Structure formats: C-alpha cells, structure tokens
Amino acid sequence: MEFTAQQIADYLHGTIEGNPQVRLHDFAKIEEGRSGCLSFLANAKYEHYLYETASDAVLVNEDFRPRESVRTTLIRVPNAYAALAQLMQLVDSMKPQRKGVDSTAFVHPSVSVPDDCYIGAFAYVAEGASLGTGCSVYPHVYIGSSVSVGEKTTLYPHTTVYDGCRIGARCIIHAGAVIGADGFGFAPDADGYNKIPQMGNVIIEDDVEVGANTCIDRAVMGSTIVHRGVKLDNLVQIAHNCTVGSHTVFAAQVGMAGSSHVGEWCQFGGQVGLSGHIKVGDHVSLGGQTGLLSNVKSGSVLLGSPGMPVRDMLRTSVILPKLPDMSRRIDQLEKEISELKEICKNSKP
C-alpha cells in the first residue's frame, strides 16, 4: 500500500513543506528512517534525528521550527503523535479481514455465527453465546455459555471468557486474558476457608482494550464493570465487584483489590496498587508503584506508598537516604543527654 505525502497531508488536514509527490509505503522511527518511510517528531529531544534521517517524510507539529536545514519532506499537523496514530489505524483497517469458521473449532448449535465473523482453530463457543458482526475469535479462545461479544471485537489466542460475561463492541482482548474468573472470596472459620461462590459476572463496555494475561474477576453478586474506552496494559488484575471509569488507562501490573472503584479519565502508572473498598475520583494521576489505602479526591496527582502529593514524595525521597545516619546521630544524642542528666543529678548538693 502506497501513498504520496500530499495524500497523507490531505487526509490529516495538514500542510506540506518539501516534495508533495514523494511516495511512502511504510512507517519507521525517525532514527531508523529509510527510503519510502514516514516518521514523526513529537518530542524536541529527538529533533537532531530530523536533520539526518533517511525517511522521505516526517510528521511534525504545525508550530515546529527547525534549527537547521531539512532534507526530508515535512508534513505539518496540529499534533504529530495523534496524526501518526490516525494514519496507522487507517492502514490497519485496510488489512484483509479473516472470515469463516475453522473446521477444528467447536461452535454450539444454538449459536448463530454472522457471515463476516472469524473463528479460528480449536476455539470453543459454548451454548447460548452471542457473537456480533465482524468479530474475530482467534485459535484456542474459550467463550463460555451465555457470553455476549459485540460487533468488531477481537479475542486473541488463548483468551478465556467465563459464563455470563458481556463484552461490548470494538473491544480488543489480547492473548491469555481471563475475563470472569472467580473473585478471591473466602469465609474463614475454625476448619479453614470456605469458598464464597462468585455469582455475578463481568461487563466490559465498548472500545475497551485489555492487555495480554490481564485478569478481570467476576463479581460476588452483580457485576465487575470496565466502562467505555478503558485501556488496560498487560498483567493487570481487577478484582471482584470493582469498577473502572470511562477512558481510564492502567499501565502494566496495576492491581485493584475487591470492591475498589476508579473514576473517569484516570491515569495509573505501572504497579499501582489499590486496597479494597476505596474510591478514586475522576482525572486522578498515580505514578508508578503508588499504593492507595484510602479514598482519593478528583484531580489528585499522587506518588509513593502510601500515595501522597508528588512534591511531598519528592521531598521525602531526598530524606530517605539520610535516615540511617540520622538514626545513628539521634542514638548518640540520646546517649549524651542521658549522661548529662546523670552528671546534673550527681552534682546536686
């Protein structure tokens, strides 16, 4: 597939600076550019690559002003990074779509498979499941009874969707994800731990992406809910009866304990941990490895464990390496004070 720089600029409502007829057929990082490729520059620290790249065209922000002469063609757009994503989505949508049911797949007779669906080798679709138009079910996927999968949703290999769960339209569930496994619920008694049956389900709304080997547990009662537009990285754990608000993003290894709730448009760095039964407001940003033990109000930006305002955490991080020496000095001071007290006591008439 090949486009001219002018065609790309027209599609992105951008402007050309250079050769509008240069032909482009691939993407490349600006530092690894080669003939026929389109690159992008969105971060000023990579600007030096612009003057030496072999890419034939580069997306740049419309307010970018080069400090040296540029050999490549520039395509100026309001936001170079967003424009790159838009172009890559366009190219991806043009790939031929797989269709049909592999002969080794099992689809229960009660399931109606739309003509434009794809079901790969050794996939299993149980009784009462519902598949939307244009969905793709890759090899070794398990879809339990009464599961619903929305239109144009993709389930990659070895995805497991337990009975009764619901997945919306245009979702992407990556390899090895488990949707609807039992929540971690046990009632302790004198003889050990009695399992509490998890009778609810998981609801994933439209336009959600779930990373590889991520687990979203079913609710004890009711539903664990991942709302519209959420993006989850690999190895995320969402426990029973949690909710994740619309357009929130989690980096890898985020963990939510049972019945914790996160608002809309939040951003969590890697290995963030939430204790159970807490509420996080909207537009909250948590740096990597932040730990939350209590509710967080909307708009907060926190770091550390327990989570605290970033400025406080940075001050704390400066003090932490000094603590061993401070402890020794305090011990010495306490010893000297004790000796002084003894001297004063013995010197009294």
TrEMBL record:
Its Enzyme Commission number?
Answer: 2.3.1.191
- HAMAP family attached to this UniProt entry: LpxD
Q: What is its quaternary makeup?
A: Homotrimer.
Protein name, entry field: UDP-3-O-acylglucosamine N-acyltransferase
Which organism is the protein's source? Porphyromonas loveana
Give the gene name. lpxD
Whether Repeat counts among this entry's keywords is yes
What's an example of a GO molecular-function annotation for this chain? UDP-3-O-[(3R)-3-hydroxyacyl]-glucosamine N-acyltransferase activity
Q: What class of enzyme is it?
A: transferase
UDP-3-O-[3-hydroxymyristoyl] glucosamine N-acyltransferase non-repeat region domain segment(s): 22-90
Family membership = Belongs to the transferase hexapeptide repeat family. LpxD subfamily.
Q: In which pathway does it act?
A: Bacterial outer membrane biogenesis; LPS lipid A biosynthesis
SUPFAM superfamilies from the xrefs? Trimeric LpxA-like enzymes
